[in-house]
Amino acid sequence: MTAQEDVLILEKPANGRIWVMRLNRPERLNSFNGELRKSLYEAFWDFAHDDEAWVAILTGTGRAFCTGQDLKERTERNAAALAGEPDPMVQLPDYLQDIYPLSEKLNCWKPIIAAVNGLAVAGGFNAAMQCDVRIASTEAEFGIAEVRWNQGAAWVHHLPKIIGLANALELTLWGDERISAERAKEWGFVNEVVAPEDLMPTAMDWAERMLTLAPRSVRNLKEILYRGMTMGPAEAQRYGANLERNLIGMEDSIEGPKAFSEKRKPEFKNR
Predict the structure, then answer these.
(1) Residues 257-264, mean pLDDT to the nearest whole number
(2) How many helices (H) and strands (E) does the chain have?
(3) How far apart are CA 143 and CA 134, in angstroms?
(4) Residues 47, 135, 18, CA angle at the centre, nearest 5°?
(5) Model pLDDT for residues 153-203, shown as the tens digit of each residue
(6) Neighbours of 19 (CB within 10 A)
């Protein structure tokens, strides 16, 4: 176990193939300041470019998963700006405004699991949404509260594709209430709801199952699913067929059918 930054704890069990990224600002409900945003981007960058890393789990420390932008810090920054002081967030590179694996800069198609331990609101809701599957504690709550504070949430454009337009409008426009993990599951946002003590073991089980699967095939299918949402059927079919040519000649492409014929589990190496 190693700590990347105090605000983000990075753990690498299972020979480095599983990464656990733990948001670690519990005193601020794991809200994003510049330091946490930078640390998380760097962690995802390293994950995307590490050949040994196959799957990641994103979770939080304390009673919150993430509550989005640190509005207390934002207030302090606004006061400093009125006093003529430079805003440190303005100095951050543009790419740090889009810190997640599917951003154009990161372009990471490895699977990401959200282990939602508590509050996931505003930008924290977005952080969970940017993951591929969401495992939620029964203590988790979800909400998009930007309308309460006159803030923006351009990222909600993706939400109707997950939970439907009516539910997305309810959650976004009437942002004065949060929904439970069970209701989020009913809407199709959460994949599984478990007791708090079972959250990380369940997320780890999902991650360990991924280690038995062919990583190149997994990444191809994730990319096809996401990109296909903005394509017509014929275009998506052509894109997927062209992408999957990268399976030709791989050792894993030989190992899969061979293991099936020999009635054993395949041993994939991403080669």
Answers:
(1) 97
(2) 11, 11
(3) 15
(4) 25
(5) 999 999 999 999 999 999 999 998 999 999 999 999 999 999 999 999 999
(6) 25
pTM for the model stands at: 0.91
Give the lowest-confidence range in 32-36, 103-107, 179-183, 246-250: 103-107
Contact (CB, 8 A) for 26 and 61: yes
Token pair in block for residue 197 = 């003590």
Residue 133 pairs in a beta bridge with 113
Q: What pLDDT, on the 0 to 100 scale, is given for residue 93?
A: 65
Q: For residue 4, what pLDDT is reported?
A: 44
Rounded Cα–Cα distance for residues 175 and 141 (Å): 13
For residue 222, give the amino acid letter: K
Q: Are 174 and 106 in contact (CB under 8 A)?
A: no
- Quick one: which H or E segment has residue 9? strand 8-11
Nearest alpha-carbon partner for 210 in 40, 59, 19: 19
Beta strands in 190-255 (DSSP E): 192-194
Kindly calculate the radius of gyration of the chain based on its CA atoms and give it in whole angstroms: 20
Q: Which two tokens stand for residue 49?
A: 């470019």
